[in-house]
Every structure is written in structure tokens, then in C-alpha cells.
Design a protein that fits this description.
With about 240 residues, the protein is α+β, with helices and mostly antiparallel strands. Helix content is about 20%, strand content about 30%. A seven-stranded mixed beta sheet has the order 2-1-3-5-4-6-7. Strands 8-9-13-12 form a four-stranded antiparallel beta sheet. Strands 11-10-14 form a three-stranded antiparallel beta sheet, with no helix packed on it.
């Protein structure tokens, strides 16, 4: 299984090209799973925390092709990470580093191989996709990699008290793991303050609240409404935890 996590946009031209590049190097029947193609644009830090939360729902040996790469074509490294039985391929710009920091076992490599045809602006298609395809076949091409002591850009494994994603409902996913926040705590964000509710139905229609979402993160929502619109929040806005913690 190859799982795709990008900021390419599901309706643009890039995801199709990425899949064609993968299929050129994988056997028939390989599963390509669209994890997300609307990761925050140009935001490897937010993407890193979102990827770390999502990965637990995927099987061992899943290969994640993760591309949020505003530095494409620059001197930033291209990386392979093996973390607790799963593989990750992408830019070494922090995107893979929260996964690495939280893993019990992790190894990393720098991709030294370069294809004969390499677009300066689309390493996802030309560089990362072939590598992800080889790994999905059980092939670790040591002649194309140099093992490293760790990723060059490391964000650490601590939670991120920011909005990291806004879904199409206007719900605000944060980089806070819900297990670390007391249910008695209140969250302050932008001009609003919200208390905990277990599910949407426990809040009044139009009321903002926070809850533990299905991937274990603190999420701020409005029952039958948009928290992003009601609270005036964007990705990157800070979240402050108050009260009992």
C-alpha cells in the first residue's frame, strides 16, 4: 500500500501525474490510497503533526509518499524514514520529523539518486514517487541512499498548540493530542473561548466547543456550523489551554 499525503489539491493536475509515476514502478494491483491532498499549503510544520496523527490508522509496511515541499529545487535534502514498521518518503524539511521523534524505532536515509529527467519543481513525481514504489515492493535500494544519523530538519515530538487543518465543515484540527488535555480545560482561540463536549449533539446548535476527534487530536467545532467562520480562525492560529490541565 502506498499512501499519498500532499498539498497538491485533489482537483489540480498534480495528483494524477504522481499516481502515473508510481504505477510505472509498481506491480499491477498496488493500492494507492489518498490520505489527503489538501494539507496546508507550504506548511510542513502543520503537515508534520497531521501526518503523525493519521499514520496510526494505516497498516504496517505502508509506504507514505508525503510531499509538502515549498523548498523544492533548493538544497534541502530528500529523505526516506522507516518508523515503527512504516516507510515515509519526502522532503527533509520537517514534514517527516514528528513521526520520527515519536517513533520507538526509526532509521533515516538521504536520497542520493537522481533520475535522468528531474523537474526542478516536481520532485514528488520524478524523485519521491519512484523511491516510494521501490520501497512498496520490498526493495531498499542501498545504492541510491546514504543512511543518516537522523533527519536534518527536526521539529521534535511535542504537541503543537496551533490550528493545523480546517476541514470542509469549518472544523479546526489542532496539533494538540487530546490525551494531554483535561476535559475540564477551556481553549482560547482568536476571539473565542470554548469548553469540552464529548460529541456534537452534546452542544447546542450554533455553539462552539472542543472534543477529541477520531484521530486523537483536539478539534474545535460548532454544532451545525463552521468554527472557522464563527471564530475567525485560520491555519497557524495559536490555541491557548486554560483552567485545569
Amino acid at each position: 500500500m502506498i499512501a499519498l499525503f500532499t498539498d497538491f489539491g485533489a482537483d489540480d493536475i498534480y495528483v494524477g501525474q504522481l499516481k502515473v509515476a508510481l504505477l510505472r514502478h509498481t506491480p499491477a494491483g498496488t493500492s494507492l490510497i489518498d490520505v489527503l491532498h489538501t494539507a496546508p499549503n507550504f506548511g510542513p510544520r502543520a503537515g508534520a503533526h497531521l501526518l503523525a496523527a493519521l499514520r496510526s490508522w494505516y497498516l504496517p509496511d505502508t509506504v507514505f509518499l508525503a510531499v509538502v515541499d515549498p523548498g523544492v529545487g533548493s538544497e534541502r535534502d530528500a529523505a526516506v524514514l522507516h518508523a515503527d514498521g512504516q516507510w515515509f518518503v519526502g522532503p527533509d524539511n520537517g514534514l517527516l520529523s514528528v513521526v520520527a521523534a515519536r517513533a520507538a524505532r526509526a532509521r533515516s536515509w538521504r536520497i542520493t539518486w537522481r533520475p535522468a529527467m528531474l523537474s526542478a519543481s516536481f520532485h514528488g513525481r520524478d524523485l519521491f514517487a519512484p523511491m516510494a514504489a521501490w520501497l512498496s515492493r520490498g526493495d531498499l535500494p542501498s545504492d541510491k541512499l546514504d543512511e543518516t544519523a537522523g533527519l536534518r530538519v527536526q521539529l521534535g515530538g511535542d504537541d503543537l498548540a496551533e490550528v493545523i487543518y480546517i476541514d470542509h465543515y469549518g472544523n479546526l484540527l489542532t496539533g494538540l493530542r487530546a490525551a494531554t488535555v483535561a476535559r475540564s480545560a477551556r481553549l482560547v482561540i482568536a476571539a473565542g473561548e470554548v469548553a469540552y463536549a464529548r460529541v456534537f449533539a452534546d452542544a447546542q446548535v450554533g455553539q462552539a466547543f472542543w472534543y477529541e476527534n477520531s484521530i486523537g487530536l483536539v478539534e474545535i467545532a460548532v454544532n451545525c456550523g463552521s468554527a472557522a467562520a464563527q471564530l475567525g480562525v485560520r491555519v497557524g492560529d495559536r490555541v491557548h489551554v486554560t483552567g485545569d490541565q
